[in-house]
Amino acid sequence: MMAALLRGVHRTLHHIEDGLIVAVLLFMILLAVAQIVLRNFFGTSLVWIEPLLQNAVLWIGLLGAMIASRNDEHIRIDVASSLLPEKYHPFLTTFVDLFTAFICLLVAWYSVHFVIEEYEYASPAFASVPSWLLQAIIPVGFSVMALRYVVLFALGLIGKRPKLQEPTP
After folding, report:
1. pTM for the full predicted model
2. Spatial distance between the Cα atoms of 64 and 93, rounded to a whole number of angstroms
3. How far apart, in whole angstroms, are the C-alpha atoms of residue 11 and residue 38?
């Protein structure tokens, strides 16, 4: 019963991530088209669209990274696995999972401090929207990725980690 509940929560989180990335991308496209139409046909533009689109790129990037970490499909620079014998690959993968989780936690930690400073300075991103609100995706995204790699590390320790997918040439 607990496993079914966890699978349901897991699936719901995946749907939320997928829905958010689609919504943000659709919103970006609509705003960019609106800005083009306003400039070309009416000789005007909305000043707040540019900073909003810049922050939306940040959201798209981090949501995409979260989705990539969900499927363990991040870009890898993997020289060691080509140099080491096959029997050491599970140990290498486990180490890389731990290292990735550590780096993500480190970035999440410092980005929390960054967002707190943005909150304290109360600088607006545009209009009356505070910049900290738009930048809050940074610690959230890196915390989610860290959690996923901690889980992969733990699964690697007990020999239950899903196999890495080989990249297609």
Report:
1. 0.86
2. 22
3. 40
Give the chain's radius of gyration (CA, Å): 20
Contact predicate 104/142, CB 8 Å: yes
pLDDT in tens, 77-87: 777 777 888 88
Confidence at residue 169, expressed as pLDDT on a 0 to 100 scale = 55
| Cβ contact 104:160 at 8 Å | no
* Whether the Cβ atoms of residue 87 and residue 44 lie closer than 8 Å to each other: no
Q: Could you report the per-residue pLDDT of 18-44, keeping only the tens digit for each?
A: 999 999 999 999 999 999 999 999 999
- Going from the C-alpha of 97 to that of each of 84, 109, 146, 149, 158, the distances in angstroms are 17, 18, 9, 5, 14
* Element spanning 130, H or E: strand 129-130
| Distant-in-sequence, close-in-space partners of 79: CB < 8 Å, separation ≥ 6 | none
Residues 48-89 pLDDT 10s:
999 999 999 999 999 999 999 987 888 777 777 778 888 888
| Cβ pair 64, 21 in contact under 8 A | yes
